[in-house]
Design a protein that fits this description.
single chain; 252 residues; alpha+beta; Arc Repressor Mutant, subunit A; Chorismate lyase; 2 domains; two-stranded antiparallel ribbon; 5 helices; 11 strands; globular
C-alpha cells in the first residue's frame, strides 16, 4: 500500500461554515433561532472572530443564515443549500462533526464490472435508459480513511473514470471528492443513491481505524450521477457503528 497522505484541508473559514451547516441540519439550531454572539461562537470553535465572520458571511450568501444589524445572526433555512458535505451522511453519535480524510492509496485500474452492473441494475429498477451506465476504460481507485472531528470512523473505496484526469497523485486530492470533481473535472454531482447494509471490513483495514479485516461493519454502496444522468462515481464505505451512524434527514 502507498504511503498515507493527509488530504488537502479546506480553508479554515470553509471548514467552519461546513461544520455550522451540518450542526444546523442536525437540529442544533432551528429556523428563526439566534446563534450565540460572534465572540462566544468563535471561542467555542477556537477560531479568530475574523475567520468566523467570513464563515457566517458565506452561509448568509447561501441562504442558510440571516444577519440582522443590531440583533444578531439567525438560522434562515437549510433546505436546498449546496454545502460541500451536503451528501456526507455519517455523523458521530454525539453530533455531526467535521469530515476530514487521509489518502491511503491512489491506483489506476480497469473499470470494475461491479460498477456497471450496479448502475444498470438500479437504472432498470428506476425505469431509466441504461446507455449512460455502461462504460469502458480505466478508473482511478482511491482508498481513504475518513474521520469526524479527528476521530477515525470509516474506510472508503472510490472509483471514477480516469479519462478526464490522466494523471493523479494523492497530494492532488482534498478532503472533499465532490469539490475535487467540480474544480478538476468540471463534474457536478446532482444525485446519489445509497444502499446500506452490513458487510465484512476490507482486508486493507488497519489502525488508526478500529475496523478489523473481516469483522462486521456498517456498509454503504453509493452511485453518484450528474444532472445529465451520467454515472460519475461508484463508492464503497465501511463504517464503525460504535462511533458513528448513517443519518438522512427529510422534510416536506
Amino acid at each position: 500500500m502507498n504511503a498515507v497522505h493527509n488530504a488537502q484541508p479546506l480553508p479554515v473559514y470553509l471548514q467552519i461554515a461546513e461544520l455550522l451547516a451540518r450542526q444546523i441540519k442536525a437540529g442544533y439550531w432551528h429556523g428563526g433561532e439566534r446563534l450565540p454572539t460572534e465572540a462566544a461562537l468563535a471561542d467555542t470553535l477556537k477560531v479568530a472572530v475574523g475567520t468566523l465572520r467570513k464563515s457566517l458571511a458565506l452561509l448568509e450568501a447561501q441562504g442558510v443564515l440571516e444577519r440582522i444589524q443590531g440583533s444578531g445572526t439567525y438560522v434562515r433555512q437549510v433546505q436546498g443549500t449546496q454545502q460541500i458535505y451536503e451528501l456526507f451522511r455519517l455523523e458521530l453519535r454525539d453530533g455531526p462533526g467535521l469530515p476530514t480524510a487521509q489518502i491511503l492509496e491512489v491506483v489506476r485500474q480497469p473499470r470494475p464490472a461491479q460498477m456497471d452492473r450496479q448502475a444498470v441494475a438500479r437504472q432498470a429498477v428506476a425505469g431509466q435508459a441504461q446507455a449512460s451506465a455502461a462504460g469502458a476504460g480505466d478508473c482511478w481507485r482511491v482508498r481513504r480513511l475518513r474521520s469526524l472531528n479527528q476521530v477515525p470512523v470509516a474506510l472508503e473505496e472510490i472509483w471514477f473514470a480516469a479519462d478526464g484526469c490522466p494523471d493523479l497523485t494523492a497530494q492532488a486530492l482534498g478532503d472533499s471528492m465532490y469539490l475535487f470533481y467540480q474544480q478538476r473535472l468540471q463534474v457536478w454531482i446532482a444525485r446519489v443513491e445509497d444502499q446500506i447494509s452490513a458487510a465484512p471490513a476490507p482486508d486493507w483495514a488497519a489502525p488508526p481505524c478500529a475496523l478489523v479485516p473481516g469483522a462486521c461493519a456498517g456498509y454503504i454502496e453509493r452511485l453518484s450521477w450528474t444532472a445529465t444522468k451520467e454515472l460519475a462515481e461508484f463508492s464503497k464505505t465501511w463504517f464503525d457503528p460504535q462511533v458513528c451512524r448513517y443519518t438522512s434527514r427529510l422534510s416536506q
